[in-house]
């Protein structure tokens, strides 16, 4: 269990600067996610950590040791990719034992460690099967056991669940978290799946064009995006343009085309001034519907289009001529009011995030 420290890491491919001086401190035993749009540098950073790329600038430390230029096999790290590449001719146990054979671990210890790794992913009963006799999720568990058996000091996961169907993915992500915490592993996980990150991460970093835009806990990043980019990238949101009318510390009043709305700064370090142009970010599930006007942060309108998803409905709530907000209603009750005039919507000031431009 070691901390991972990335200091000012820059990685180039010809003219492309894939990482522009990244700084990152990952705590021992932390389950840390790298998120961002395609091409933002997630895989490049993971590959620098694993030793497949050497950065042009900056350093990487595992604990006190500088591993920036150390070969991958000397880093004592486990790695699991999207294509988990089990050897088809070997049994489950042989696949898991493979890394130990390369490390010349004696037979007795090898057997004990393979059993322990298989038990930790609940696959001990399948030790003598071949990979093609397993489901996708079971193969993924074996791949996880294979990276755990060498007792890595860090675990790197690159889209490990993207080959699985939605239900298995949900099951396996909890499983990965359980195993990482059981082994107290410092784990760095790259994914496109925001739900995967939001549901199991201790903390996460949002990257764009080789830079970290925001770092924080899932709830911290989701509730308080510091920029329109992050607000838009994580989850869904409504943006409303406005002008600051009153700039208080925790409560900023903004004039918008649906009325004055009070909100809070996305970035606590931002300070606002009267007359400043800002963007408000309001998550669709934060807009509440009602049949009576609500004074603070309320506005009148009607429901336009609606889509029913079972547990929730998605509405277009029109306020004014052609402005609408996307609204999610859990356990939908307003479906029978689609098109009806005289409805009201309101949003708690704590859910109105003020972003400077
Ligand atoms: N071997 C390479 N040679 C040249 N350019 C590369 C190479 N690997 C990555 N890049 C470039 O570096 C940038 C970052 O790529 P990277 O693979 O790290 O992105 P990513 O965030 O992992 O994307 P994705 O989500 O699509 O996997 C991209 O512009 C990419 O085209």
Automatic annotation (TrEMBL):
Residue runs in coiled coils: none
Cross-referenced Gene3D superfamilies: 2.40.50.100, P-loop containing nucleotide triphosphate hydrolases
Origin: domain of life: Bacteria
Biological processes annotated in GO: quaternary ammonium group transport
Pfam families: ABC_tran
Domain ABC transporter: start-end pairs: 4-234
One annotated GO molecular function: ATP hydrolysis activity
PANTHER family from the UniProt entry: SPERMIDINE/PUTRESCINE IMPORT ATP-BINDING PROTEIN POTA, SPERMIDINE_PUTRESCINE IMPORT ATP-BINDING PROTEIN POTA
Name of the protein described by the UniProt record: ABC transporter ATP-binding protein
Organism from which the protein derives: Oceanipulchritudo coccoides
Origin organism lineage: Bacteria, Pseudomonadati, Verrucomicrobiota, Opitutia, Puniceicoccales
């Amino acid at each position: 269990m070691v901390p991972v420290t990335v200091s000012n890491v820059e990685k180039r491919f010809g003219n492309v600067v894939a990482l522009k001086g990244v700084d990152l401190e990952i705590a021992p035993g932390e389950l840390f996610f790298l998120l961002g749009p395609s091409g933002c540098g997630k895989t490049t950073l993971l590959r620098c950590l694993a030793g497949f790329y050497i950065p042009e600038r900056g350093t990487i430390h595992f604990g006190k040791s500088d591993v920036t230029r150390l070969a991958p096999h000397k880093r004592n790290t486990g790695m699991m990719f999207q294509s988990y590449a089990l050897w088809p001719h070997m049994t489950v146990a042989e696949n898991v034992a493979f890394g130990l054979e390369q490390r010349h671990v004696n037979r007795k210890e090898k057997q004990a460690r393979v059993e322990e790794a298989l038990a930790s992913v609940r696959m001990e009963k399948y030790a003598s099967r071949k990979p093609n006799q397993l489901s996708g999720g079971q193969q993924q568990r074996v791949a996880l056991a294979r990276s755990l058996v060498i007792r890595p000091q860090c675990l790197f996961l690159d889209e490990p669940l993207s080959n699985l169907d939605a239900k298995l993915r949900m099951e396996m992500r909890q499983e990965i978290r359980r195993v990482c915490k059981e082994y107290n592993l410092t784990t760095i996980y790259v994914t496109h799946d925001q739900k995967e990150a939001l549901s199991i991460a201790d903390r996460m970093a949002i990257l764009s064009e080789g830079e970290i835009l925001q770092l924080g806990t899932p709830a911290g990043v989701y509730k308080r995006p510091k920029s329109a980019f992050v607000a838009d990238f994580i989850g869904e949101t409504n943006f409303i343009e406005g002008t600051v009318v009153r700039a208080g510390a925790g409560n900023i009043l903004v004039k918008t085309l649906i009325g004055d709305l009070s909100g809070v700064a996305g970035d606590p370090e931002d300070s606002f001034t009267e007359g400043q142009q800002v963007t408000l970010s309001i998550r669709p599930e934060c807009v509440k519907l009602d049949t009576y006007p609500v004074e603070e942060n309320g506005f009148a309108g009607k429901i336009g289009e609606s889509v029913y998803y079972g547990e929730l409905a998605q509405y277009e709530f029109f306020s004014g001529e052609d402005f609408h907000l996307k609204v999610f209603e859990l356990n939908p009750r307003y479906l029978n009011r689609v098109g009806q005039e005289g409805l009201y919507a309101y949003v708690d000031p704590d859910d109105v995030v003020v972003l400077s431009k």
